[in-house]
Each structure stands twice: as structure tokens, then as C-alpha cells.
Design goal:
This protein has 16 helices and 16 strands. The model has no long low-confidence stretch (mean pLDDT 96). The strands form four sheets. Strands 4-12-11-10-7-5-6 form a seven-stranded mixed sheet, with helices on both faces. Strands 1-2-3-15 form a four-stranded mixed sheet. The protein has a three-stranded antiparallel sheet with strand order 13-14-16. It is of the alpha/beta class.
Amino acid sequence: MISINDIYERKTRLSYYLYREARSVMPYGVSSNYRYWEPYPIYLVKGKGSRVWDVDGNEYIDFNMGFGVLEVGHSHPRIVEEVRRAVEDSTILGFEYEKSVELAKIICNRYNVDMVRFSSTGTEATMHAIRIARAYTKRKKIIKFEGHYHGSHDQLLINVNPMRLESRVPTSPGIPEETLSNTLVADWNDYEGFERLVRVHGNDVAAVIMEPVAMNMGLIPADLDFLKGVFDLARDYGFLVIFDEVKTGGKFYSGASGYYGLKPDLIILAKAIAGGLPLSVVAGRRKVMSVIGPEKVAHGGTFNANPLSVKASIFTLTELLTQNNMYYAYRLNSLLSKGYEDIADDLDIDLSVSMWGTSGTIYFAEKVPKNYKEFVRIDQKPWYVYFLNMLAHGIIPMADYDEQWTISIQHTEEDITRHLEVAQMVLKKLKEDYKL
Ligand SMILES: Cc1ncc(COP(=O)(O)O)c(C=O)c1O
């Protein structure tokens, strides 16, 4: 019998050759660790609407959507036009670009914040948020949650995806112990645990940072009571609440803060807000943001608020990611999520579905986990077989077992139907092979 690895290798020969070449000039042949998987990754050539094509000419319906960046879909014609016109007026002006003011106002209205500062990536913006919080509170410690990811700077790279369940596990070699000594780790959705930690350290804590809907261990929303408890403790002990909305900010019209009806002190936006171009934001209450400035808190970046990203973002937030269009994507997401639930019922397999806004994911487990400790107990072997099989049939379901799908405003009902047809076939086979 021919194995899924054989099928994958036959379909992706040119990717394999490119991978062999790439390995000699880039570690693991990729520009980000998250783009590598076994036996080797595919190399993409272009994308349009809901589709991408690889070097072998295979077409895929893409549900990874640039790890959540492409809420507007690939190469939206109106974004292409906007960027083409922007290029003619320079890609970078050096001094402040007039339209950054317009974009700042749009973001203030939509996300209920008073002031914003722009940068290019989520990593930069979370790094800035921490510095701002420390300067504002004049305290050092930061609380983060296990399983939450805030980018690839050192300070929060602890207990992101530990395979060992110990209390403190740095996520990478090369991070000095001292750099992490002010980072405390708490369990997601565990109010009692959080309160215990705060009772000991609360007066030294500058901020708690979280993904309000955790999207780096699949998709695990916060319980509202848990969140409210965290806000109350933050007020009582005088530390800030930071929502890392790098993912959530583009998956619900006004992000998770709008969804939960809460106003954190700082929020971070990135990924989807500029229609596929690099732009990130740290934003929040006026008194907190006011610590930034020359001879005050450092905040800089050559490419911050570059004209291409700013123009694309204004267009994205006002014309494309409208309430109506977001609702359209949400409705398709409900169809996909319900479709997976029906398949699980029909095949009688342990598969659970979690959805929020325009994203969702599946777990090969009876129930959606509540936190990282439950998540890490799930056997991920079936997921990899599912993933390679989905790829072999022209569907990129999501990027990894700890990721989620993104439904863009350019996906169609036919895309969802095709995704579910393939999933039904793949999961039926998996049930036989893995006794799910
Ligand atoms: C919640 C969250 N925060 C921050 C980041 C880092 O963003 P970037 O990759 O743009 O640096 C990511 C990236 O996936 C993320 O998911």
C-alpha cells in the first residue's frame, strides 16, 4: 500500500529539490521556524483570493492565510490598486507620513483606545508594550500565560510550548536566565492559580499580558469570569492589563476587547490590520501611552508607519474588514466548524472543534482543552497524518496543530464544502488507521 509520505513526495518533488538547496543556505531551509515541518515543507509561488500555488504547480485552498494575516484574502484587487498607487509616492518617507494620523484615528475609534504608536511586526509591538508598562508602573515583573506566544523577543519566550510540564521552561536556547527572571508564568483560565501568584508578587508586577483568545495552542477563549477576575486583581494591585490582539484583532470587528466588552490598558495589533502588509500597533490609555517620547520611553523603527502599510491599512479597516464582510466570513466559519462537528458525530471519533470570530480549529480529543496542560496531553500524531493528507488533496487546513484556520472575506461557500469533503475522506481513513 502506498503511504501518505509517498503521495506527498510525488506531488511535491520540486519543493523537495528546493528544500535540499535551501538547507545549505538557510537553517532548515526556511525563514521562520514555523514554516518547517517533516518530511520537508512546500515552497509557494503565489496566492490569489483563497488559493495558493506551490513550485510544483499544485493549487491549494488556503486556510492558513499567512498565519492569520490575510483576513482580506490573498492579493485583494483593491489592496493591490491601493499599494500600486502608494508606491508611486515613495515607499518610505523617513519623517512622519501625513496619513498615519488618519489611520491612528481609525484605530482609536474601532478598538476603543486613546493613542497609538506604529511598528511593523507583532514581536516589536509586544516588546514595546512591556517597556511602556514597566516605565509607567516603575515595576519590573510581567505575568504571562503558559501556551501564549507574544513573538520572538527574549522576555516572553518562556513556557510557550513546553513539551515538559515544569513550572519554568525557556522556549529557546540562547536566552539568559536573567532575562527571564522577571517573567512569571500562570495557567490560562485558572483564576485561583493567578490569584495565588498575584498575592505573592502583585506589588512588583508591571503588567499581565495575554492572548485574550489563546491562538497558539489551537483556539482557547478566555472564560469571561476569569478575565474579569484578572482585571479586578490588576486594579487592586496597580498593574496593567495588556491584550496581545496580534491575532484576535483581525478576527472580530473590534477585536477581543470589543467582543468581551473590556478595556485593557494596552492592546497590540498586527497581522490582519494592513491587508497583508507589515504593520503593528501598540495602543491604549492616554496616560499610559504618554510615557513614550524623546528622553522618555524609547520607541522607534525606520519602517514604522511606512506609506505602503498605512495606505493598505486605512483601506483594509474602512472598506474591507467592515461589519458586513466580517459577518460573511464568520458565517462561513460557522459552516466549517459545524461541518467538522457533524463529521466527528458521523464517524463517531474523538474530535472536538473550537471556533471564535473568523477562526477555528480541531483537536483530536473528546473535549476542547481549557489550558496548555490539557492541550499538551493530546497525542498529535494523528494531526500530522491529517495535515499531510489534507495537503495531498489540495487543502491547507491550518499551519500546525497549535494553529487555527482563518476564513477570509474572499473564501466562498464552495471552498468550505470542498474542505469538508476532503476532511470527511481523510478522517474516515484516519479512524481506520488510528482507531480515533
Ligand atoms: C499572539 C501573537 N503575538 C505576537 C506574535 C508575533 O508577531 P510577528 O510574527 O508579527 O512578530 C504572534 C505571531 O504569530 C502572535 O500570534
